[in-house]
What does this fold into?
Amino acid sequence: MLANFLLGAQVALRPDALLMTLLGVAWGILGGALPGISGSIAMALLLPFTFGMDPAVALMMLAGVYVGAMYGGSITAVLISTPGTPGSAITVVDGYALHQRGESGKALGVSLVTGTVGGIAGVCILVAFAIPLSRVALLFGPPEYFAFGVFGLALISSFVGRDLVKGGISAVLGLMLATVGTDPFSGTPRFTFGSVDLVGGVAVAAGMIGLFAVSEIFYQVAEGVDWERVRGRYATKLPSLRELWRLRVATLIGIVFGTIEGLLPGGGGAIASFMAYNEAKRWSKHPEEFGRGSLEGVAAPETANNVVTATALIPLLTFGIPGSNSAAILLAGMMLHGLQPGPALFERTPQVVYGLFVGLLVANLFMLGLGLLAVRPSIALVNVRRPFLLAGILGLVLVGAYSIKNSMVEVWVVLATGAVGYLMRRYGYNVLAMVLGFVLGFMVEANLRRSLLISLGDPWVFFTRPISAVLLALAVLTFLWPLLRRARETRRAALAG
Amino acid sequence: MRRADVVAATVLLAVAALYYQQSFFVVRGFATDRLGPTFVPRLLAGALAVLALTLLARALGGRSDPTPPPAARIEVLLTILALLVGYAVVMPKLGFLLATPGFLAAVLAALGIREPLAVVGAAVGMTAILYLAFGRLLGVLLPTSPFGRV
It folds into this structure.
């Protein structure tokens, strides 16, 4: 393996390869920071430019975009409450809270450093365990995916706070939104109200832009926030080494969940980041800070997100199954250059595979460098007079929504979900629960039905398969744990009072 | 939040009923599974109805939090909403480059910016940056006006 790694390093450390990786990362950060332009779109736009390149360099450039886009999405999540990917949705909670407190540099710095650590850890796991871990991925069938999705949904109980009824309503609304579009089995349209534009479903990116960014703008406009008071207060100060060291547990949790989700094709980082956040909160010495600007609340999901950029390549390289949209574009890039994914790829073209591995390491380091350079200008952009900032964000998110499918339907979705999100925030509902339901709804329904189809309608299929049974048991525990803890605290308070 | 919860529960019950009723218009194709395309939606409609009824019972039983005071700048929010709806209607017809500066200038004016030069300069500048980033750099096909590429 060491010989192959050195062979890969020879390719990846060539000046042309380094330059292309750097350009890829820069392009990825820009694409990720623009709402509506996901990492996969940014990669797809670069794909034609890779035709004439050495295959290893082409893949490194595309992987650079993939890595950069993940951080780009976090910049907007922290600074303007607009997650670039479903995986950075949970980053908004504490990242944006830190930004509102004026600690923007710390939030961005933690996202960047823990993201880099996650990315590098992901590559190490990819290099060392790609083949054995790929066998684990094979153990996951539809019942396991269903159970994994239910596990993700069970996190709602820890996000909704004291009002479980309103949290439940929020989650059900998100699940209902996920049913709009073509049915995954029969192919018939559902709840499209005759609109051809809704046949493809409601874009997750549009829903998130509306629920997070537009609802926040409406909130600031309507609720009498003193704009002059908040002007220019966003500091660029980065986190200290001591602060970063305190995040080691949250970072480790992110690595574990990012590794698990990366193995599962179709995961994409959302469940991993939500789970990592939840576990980081449970293991934290200061769980009460979560939701109010906790650095651990930024570190755990950002690490998980970035681990997925590497571990999603395990099913891609070993079986040719892309674990996310971005991995699918990478697969397209491989096929354009005549590379066939599978175990033989490691033997026949080690310079390409190991070049990609080293390229990913280099891309993460470039991300750290470029990200540090981007912190000050990014914060300077939001330190302007509030009306100019709000108008700029509105323009950005509207054109971003339009660019998702080059269609006005997404703009209307953004406006509608923005209005709903504002009302939810005002009257004590939970936007995050709605997003979680929306992101996981399709996966849970499709795998529930697929499982029952395979088992000829026998629901015991979920309990007789060990992984599925364990995941469902964990889901029950995850759901009940915060409720029991809250009940115990209430009882203690009642006894004390 | 008593009154707000009663209104919300009523609206949510209506949403659940509409969603349930719409599930009858979903065509069950030949190639489908045991549960079919309407099982999960009807389950969700039922869950929403139960939760909305719980919310209603809680509000009527006086166990809800008090309704929050009205928003401080609700008229500004309504103006911004009207501008957004107007922009979404007009932009595909007028084109991105003609509709966007007007929309952004109106938003800035609604948010209290009174210096005409600052309003016009910012609106035109933001439009130019968005056009260059999305239309030129990323190749997004932004709506064009009836007069051509503008």
